[in-house]
Amino acid sequence: MKIGIVGLPNVGKSTLFKALTRNPVDINNYPFCTIEPNIGIVKVPDSRLSRLAEMSRSKKIVPTVIEFVDIAGLVKGASTGEGLGNKFLANIREVDAITHVVRVFDNSNIIHVHNKIDPESDIEIINTELILADLETIKKTRTRVEKDVRGNKKGADIQLGVIDKIQKALEDGKLANSLVGVQFIEPLTKKSLINQTPTGILNLSEEYTTIIVREMSLLTMKPFLYVYNVSDTNRKLSDNLENRNHVKLDIKIEEELLEMTPEEAAELEIKSNLDSLILKAYEILGLITFLTTGVDESRAWTIQKGWTAPLAGTAIHNDFKDKFIRAEVIQWDELLKTGSWGKARELGKLRLEGKEYVVQDGDVIEFKI
Q1: SS (H, E, C) 223-287
Q2: Radius of gyration of the chain (CA)
Q3: Contact between 49 and 63 (Cβ < 8 Å)
Q4: CA 105 to chain centre
Q5: pLDDT, tens only, 298-318
């Protein structure tokens, strides 16, 4: 899964990327320092793994990871190609979620592209450019779907109704993801829709809506996480900022921690807050972790929340889905209490689960195929 780090030029994106990935990247005090996106793999912190590895005396520990992509800074007018707009929009279309870095700290020595510190305005600029880009996509899709409606293509009238709703939200200045999970109470288009759904309710998770939304690949349909680059992580911000899905980081401190030993950081009583960002990013993608453990390795596996056991098995190998027979499952803390897999089986703590079992975060699983 890829998380795109975006924001206006010179707000701390590349510095954050460096702190997250410990990769050296070009960091300078001028706009458009980043042109080609930097890509780095970041471990998802999980204390459960080390404890399971200790129990199993595993030879190695393999954590799950997220890919972070540092994307060029965006400027007003990007949707029409200003700055590196076209390149920016193409790069962001490739990621699964968006981490928007917003400058909140005040420092006259660091240039702000608009020469003022106004985080809410900065958010609005980025959102507006993404919305304008999505409106262009919507218009192109509408032309095709309207033709399908005239040709009586199955589901086209429902798709057009969804397009209407999304377009209205975008024109009102809302992100398309604000509609996720929203029920469309009134009939969307033709009377035939009412016959298909007597209550007139349609959810974005329904078959036809999911298809059309996926095809459009709207930028503002992606999950958003805001990173407020602050000089004081305890400072209360405006309600408009606090009410967004966010993490507060002193990105400069995070960079300085890279140069310190753990002992030096402890002596100065400085702690990193990067783990909260990584875990929050994992969460907004709708991901969970199941675990395997043994002498060879203890490993974390990433899956989508809601996956059944056969689907979860594909994280290990694609064959597990079709060849799945059953799974032995136990929660990680219960396994630690028993002391070993063999003891857990002896005590009847292992559950035998079939194809319908929905895997839970923290499950330790042994698949039978």
Answers
A1: CEEEEEECCCCCCCCCHHHHCCCEEEECHHHHHHHCCCCHHHHHHCCCCCCHHHHHHHHHHHCCE
A2: 24
A3: yes
A4: 25
A5: 999 999 999 999 999 999 999
303: β partners: 288
Q: What is the pTM of this model?
A: 0.82
Summarised one tens digit per residue, pLDDT across range 316-339 is 999 999 999 999 999 999 999 999
CB 291 within 8 A of CB 334: no
Question: What tens digit of pLDDT does each residue of 72-83 get?
Answer: 665 555 445 544
- Distance, CA of 11 to chain centre: 20
Q: Which residue from 233, 250, 228 is spatially nearest to 118, judged by alpha carbons?
A: 228
